[in-house]
Design goal:
- The chain is α/β, with parallel strands linked by helices.
- The chain has 11 helices and 10 strands.
- An 8-stranded parallel sheet has the order 3-4-5-6-7-8-9-10. A two-stranded antiparallel sheet has the order 1-2.
- Helix 2 links the parallel strand 4 and strand 5.
- The two termini are 34 Å apart.
Length: 293
C-alpha cells in the first residue's frame, strides 16, 4: 500500500522503525522486514544505527530503488551548512547516494532560526535531487506556521507521536490543511515505556476495547492499531527487532475495520502525551554530537 506525497512521490504507508534498536540487532531486523515485504525503513542520525540499516538493505539483495529510506537530521546539526553536511554523514553511513525522505527531527523552539536554516538546506537538497522528499518530525501547528512563513517547500511529512491513547487531532488537522502527510511514530503505543517519562501509564496493547476488536477480526491488538492508522490515511512505522512480530506487523492488509471499530478506537484518546513535549527544551539531548562515521 503506497501513499502519494504532496510532491508526487509515492511512499509505502507502512515502514519499519528502528528507534532504540541496538546497532547489533538492527541489520538483522531490517533484513527480516524486507524479507517480510516491507519496502520502507525509518531511521535517524540520533538513533546511532544508520550504518546497520544500510547493511541490512544491502544484505537483502534488493535494488536500492526498491527500498524507501527515511532518516532525520538531529538538532546539533541544524543550520544551513551543518544540515548539508548532515546529509553527507547520513548517506555515508547508509552507503547510498540519495535519500528518499529527509526530515528535521525536532522543532527546537529555542533556536528556530537554525531550524529555518536547516530546512532551507533540505530545500536545496531536494532541488539538487539528493533527496526525493523533505519533511519534519514532532512539529506542532504553531511550529508549522512559523516554518511555512519562512520557507518555500511545504513539508511532505510530519512524523509525530500517534497511537489510540494520543491521537493529536489538532496536529493531524493542521497537517491536512497544508497537504502534509501525518506519519505515526509509536503507532502501537510502545512509547508507553519511553525512558525517563514515568511509569504510571496504561499499556495501549492491553486495552480491552482493542482486545475486543482484535478478537472480532482474529488479529492482534497491534495489527488492529496499524490497520486503524492505514484506514485513516496515515503512514505508520512500528518498531521491532523480533522477526515474528516484524512479520505480524506487516500482515495488516487482509482485513478491514468497520466504521464502528474506527469510532471506538478514536474514542480511546486521552490527550496525554507519552513521549517528550516538542516545546520543552532538552539541552543535554539537543547538544548530542552526531559522529562523522
Amino acid at each position: 500500500m503506497n501513499i502519494t506525497l504532496n510532491n508526487g512521490i509515492t511512499m509505502p504507508a507502512l515502514g519499519l522503525g528502528v528507534f532504540q534498536s541496538p546497532p547489533e540487532e538492527t541489520t538483522a531486523a531490517v533484513q527480516s522486514a524486507l524479507s517480510a515485504g516491507y519496502r520502507h525503513i525509518d531511521t535517524a542520525a540520533a538513533y546511532g544505527n544508520e550504518r546497520e540499516v544500510g547493511e541490512g538493505i544491502r544484505a537483502s539483495g534488493l535494488p536500492r530503488q526498491e527500498v524507501f529510506i527515511e532518516t532525520k537530521v538531529w538538532v546539533s546539526d541544524y543550520g544551513y551548512d551543518q544540515t548539508l553536511h548532515a546529509w553527507e554523514k547520513a548517506t555515508g553511513k547508509l552507503g547510498v547516494d540519495y535519500l528518499d525522505l529527509f526530515i528535521l527531527h525536532q522543532p527546537a523552539p529555542d533556536r528556530f532560526d537554525q531550524v529555518i536554516a536547516a530546512y532551507k538546506a533540505l530545500e536545496t537538497l531536494l532541488a539538487d535531487g539528493r533527496v526525493r522528499a523533505i519533511g519534519v518530525s514532532n512539529f506542532m501547528p504553531h511550529h508549522l506556521e512559523k516554518l511555512l512563513e519562512a520557507t518555500d517547500v511545504v513539508p511532505a511529512v510530519n512524523q509525530i507521536e500517534l497511537h489510540p491513547y494520543f491521537s493529536q487531532a489538532e496536529v493531524q488537522a493542521a497537517n491536512a490543511r497544508h497537504g502534509i502527510l501525518t506519519q505515526a511514530w509509536s503507532p502501537i503505543g510502545g512509547i508507553t515505556f519511553y525512558p525517563g517519562w514515568g511509569e504510571e501509564r496504561r499499556n495501549v496493547m492491553e486495552d480491552p476495547t482493542l482486545a475486543s476488536i482484535a478478537d472480532k477480526h482474529g488479529k492482534s491488538a497491534a495489527q488492529v492499531m496499524l490497520r486503524w492508522h492505514l484506514q485513516e490515511g496515515r503512514s505508520a512505522i512500528p518498531k521491532s527487532t523480533n522477526p515474528a512480530r516484524i512479520a505480524q506487523n506487516f500482515d495488516v492488509f487482509g482485513f478491514e475495520l468497520d466504521a464502528e471499530d474506527l469510532t471506538a478506537i478514536d474514542a480511546l484518546d486521552t490527550g496525554v502525551r507519552n513521549g517528550p513535549d516538542p516545546d520543552v527544551i532538552r539541552e543535554d539531548r539537543f547538544s548530542m554530537v552526531i559522529p562523522e562515521a
